[in-house]
């Protein structure tokens, strides 16, 4: 197995009360995509601000949305070329999303999750994706990454 990161490549602006997909990892044919770690952080400055809803979703990519293509960077394992693809900073949302997990995160902080071995969210269907979507009650920027295994 090789491990890769998909990241936002800097700030992604969130508009108040509007769901925005910030990054996605799209599974390749005959492969399994496993999410082992997820992180998001926000640059909010108001101590009593309402939390940001962070969602990990599965996407059928029926509508792939519009976003910047992103080349995942290999961080461990034997040197190989990733078969899957990734996107970041969506300007049009992908469709047919199923929320797998949801968290409320204060906009002055962040979230880091390392999924337990054997309980990592996976995408096994070719051309389907794991995506991270955020909804902030007030405008704030987010940065984040997903660490994925492909095999």
Tell me what you see in this structure.
The protein is an all-beta fold and 151 residues long. It has strands at residues 2-7, 12-14, 20-26, 33-42, 52-59, 66-70, 73-76, 85-92, 97-105, 110-114, 122-123, 129-135, 140-150. The chain has a single domain (2-150), classed as Jelly Rolls (Sandwich). It has no helices and 13 strands. It is globular. The protein starts with a strand and ends with a strand. The mean pLDDT is 96.
Explain the layout of strands and helices.
Layout: E1 2-7, E2 12-14, E3 20-26, E4 33-42, E5 52-59, E6 66-70, E7 73-76, E8 85-92, E9 97-105, E10 110-114, E11 122-123, E12 129-135, E13 140-150
Q: Which properties best describe this structure?
A:
seven-stranded antiparallel beta sheet; six-stranded antiparallel beta sheet; Jelly Rolls; 151 residues; single chain; mainly beta
Q: Tell me about the biggest sheet?
A: 7 strands, antiparallel
In DSSP terms, counting alpha (H) and pi (I) runs of 4 or more, how many helices? 0
Top-tier CATH class: Mainly Beta
Beta-strand residue percentage: over 45%
Mean pLDDT: 96
Number of strands: 13
Element-by-element helix/strand order: EEEEEEEEEEEEE
Q: How many individual domains?
A: 1
CATH architectural grouping: Sandwich
């Amino acid at each position: 197995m090789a491990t890769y990161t998909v990241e936002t490549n800097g700030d992604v602006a969130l508009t108040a009360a509007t769901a925005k997909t910030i990054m996605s990892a799209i599974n390749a044919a005959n492969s399994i995509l496993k999410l082992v770690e997820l992180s998001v952080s926000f640059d909010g400055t108001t101590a009593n601000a309402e939390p940001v809803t962070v969602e990990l979703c599965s996407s059928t990519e029926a509508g792939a949305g519009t976003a910047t293509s992103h080349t995942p960077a290999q961080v461990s394992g034997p040197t190989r070329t990733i078969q899957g693809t990734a996107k970041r900073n969506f300007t049009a949302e992908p469709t047919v999303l199923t929320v797998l997990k949801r968290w409320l995160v204060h906009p002055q902080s962040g979230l880091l999750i390392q999924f337990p071995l054997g309980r990592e969210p996976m995408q096994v269907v070719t051309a389907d994706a794991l995506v991270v979507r955020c909804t902030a009650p007030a405008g704030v920027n987010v940065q984040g990454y997903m660490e994925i295994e492909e095999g």
